[in-house]
Write a structure and sequence with these properties.
190 residues; alpha/beta; Rossmann fold; six-stranded parallel sheet; two-stranded antiparallel sheet; AB_hydrolase_fold
């Protein structure tokens, strides 16, 4: 299996969850992990991920927050299995609410500044309903201080949902969920 980890907004491929996944698969499995940097405009992210998926066999995706949003779009386009960690549902609205007109354009990193056109791109990328719902596992924590878990519960209602009380947006206990996530992805590829 080729596993692609899609990190969240203002994060990096080697965030805590990215490192945990990398360490686990390198020590415990024959899975090849890919950790792309998503700090770029949304259309560039999707173009790069589509190229990556086309170049690989037996692809599965793990996406966290904004990476979960991108993963949902990739499932719809390629029917790849995915595990989503506190996925962003409507990132264009979230960023507008967080930063407002007075802070957008918002410098995310040295190579990317989020602007209003990117918000429109995100909205236009979004699929209106979950496609291939049986290929998606959604891990939610109700203590998420950034996103409303109920929105994800409604949207992904036909997918495998694990919704835990408490927790946080970072899902600090993701490390113990890795074996379960990889089992789901492996079973879904077959």
């Amino acid at each position: 299996m080729n596993l692609i980890y899609l990190h969240g907004f203002q994060s990096t491929p080697l965030s805590m969850k990215g490192r945990w996944l990398k360490d686990y698969v390198e020590q415990q499995t024959n899975i090849k992990i890919h950790l792309p940097d998503l700090n770029m405009p949304p259309l560039d992210v999707m173009k790069n991920m589509e190229s990556l998926i086309h170049s690989l066999d037996n692809v599965a995706v793990v996406g966290s927050s904004l990476g979960g949003f991108y993963a949902t779009q990739l499932v719809a386009k390629f029917a790849v299995p995915a595990v989503l960690i506190n996925p962003a549902m409507r990132p264009w609205k979230l960023f507008q609410d967080l930063f407002g007109d007075e802070q957008i354009p918002y410098k995310v990193c040295d190579t990317w500044t989020l602007d209003h056109a990117h918000l429109i791109d995100l909205e236009q990328l979004a699929v209106p309903f979950v496609q291939d719902a049986d290929k998606i596992m959604v891990l939610l924590q109700q203590g998420d201080e950034v996103l409303d878990y109920r929105e994800a519960e409604r949207y992904y209602k036909r997918s495998l949902l694990i919704s835990e009380s408490n927790g946080n947006h970072a899902m600090d206990d993701f490390k113990i969920k890795i074996p379960m996530a990889l089992r789901f992805l492996s079973d879904s590829i077959k």
